[in-house]
Write a structure and sequence with these properties.
single chain; mainly alpha
């Protein structure tokens, strides 16, 4: 169970960090290809946590 939560936290942190530091995302005012990929990973991790029925599975 904690590995599902860890995966979600890692994916969220990586996506948020990228969005804060990516020059292309800021210059274009739109997510770059990497940001889209990281968001996809985050969404998959969130879906896995919801399927696992983990704590706070309906939030985020």
């Amino acid at each position: 169970m904690s590995s599902v939560n860890d995966a979600l936290d890692d994916a969220r942190f990586t996506y948020e960090q990228h969005m804060r530091t990516c020059r292309q995302c800021h210059a274009d005012a739109a997510p770059c290809a990497v940001a889209k990929h990281l968001l996809r990973i985050y969404n998959l991790a969130r879906r896995d946590r919801m399927r696992a029925g983990g704590p706070h599975s309906s939030t985020a």
